[in-house]
Specification:
There is one protein chain. The protein is an alpha/beta fold. The protein has eight helices and five strands, in the order βαβααβααβααβα. It is globular, with a radius of gyration of 17 Å. The model has no long low-confidence stretch (mean pLDDT 94). The structure holds thymidine-5'-diphosphate.
Length: 213
């Protein structure tokens, strides 16, 4: 069996940049790996991703949203993640079940036991060997995420996001913190408010410690 490593964090935490750099690092070490993402990773997953990330006109309710993320994940696990692990490779996955607990349960308020049950059903209990949590205060993360999509000048975050949205992201971050507490063995928390290279150094250290090089 290979190793299953997930990258988690709230908006603007820079995990997508870091997963690419982690891949480059493994390549330099001649370790076979696959980078994949959720929602996505399969043809069905990519179609569901389009729906989930442009959902405003569809009025998707919380339960339906949960089931769509779970549908994408079920396909992803069976079609891509499990076979790649069975091939002995390292799988680096940008978001996984923890995101559903943080966003759909802590963020949107769905019952945590329901969300866990759905996650377990979708994944048949496939749990990451290691989860890197890129932790960043909500105001810094949202500012970064905003800069990525537009060139709006430096307004304070409260002037650009509805307070409801800021509160949502605060709950998501609390959700991740609660997850770390419930499974400290699996999680490594990385301070993502620092520069790219400092963060990458931590990522390499954690990869080395689990890969055993
Ligand atoms: P993405 O463009 O991948 O954003 P990011 O770079 O922040 O990961 O979009 C994924 C979005 O979907 C992100 O807002 C988190 C959300 N999401 C959930 O709400 N639940 C989930 O189970 C997953 C996997 C993602």
């Amino acid at each position: 069996m290979g190793l299953f490593i997930t990258f988690e964090g709230s908006e603007g935490s820079g995990k997508t940049t870091q997963i690419k750099k982690a891949g480059e690092y493994l390549k330099r070490k001649n370790i076979s790996f696959l980078i994949t993402e959720e929602p996505g990773g399969t043809r069905l997953g990519n179609e569901l991703r389009k729906i989930l990330l442009n959902k405003s006109s569809l009025h998707i309710n919380g339960k339906s949203e949960l089931l769509l993320f779970a549908a994408a994940r079920a396909q992803h696990v069976e079609e891509i993640i499990r076979p790649t692990l069975e091939d002995g490779k390292v799988v680096l996955c940008d978001r996984y079940s923890d995101a559903t607990i943080a966003y759909q349960s802590f963020g949107r308020g769905l019952d945590i036991d329901d969300v866990r049950w759905i996650n377990n059903f979708a994944t048949r209990f496939l749990t990451p060997d290691l989860t890197l949590l890129f932790d960043i205060p909500v105001d810094i993360g949202l500012k970064r995420a905003m800069k990525r999509i537009s060139r709006i000048v430096d307004l304070p975050v409260e002037d650009r996001f509805e307070s409801e949205e800021i509160e949502f992201h605060k709950r998501v971050r609390e959700g991740y913190h609660a997850l770390i507490k419930s499974d400290p063995e699996r999680f490594r928390t990385i301070d993502a408010s620092r520069g790219i290279d400092d963060i990458h150094r931590d990522v390499c250290r954690y990869l080395d410690s689990i890969i055993g090089t």
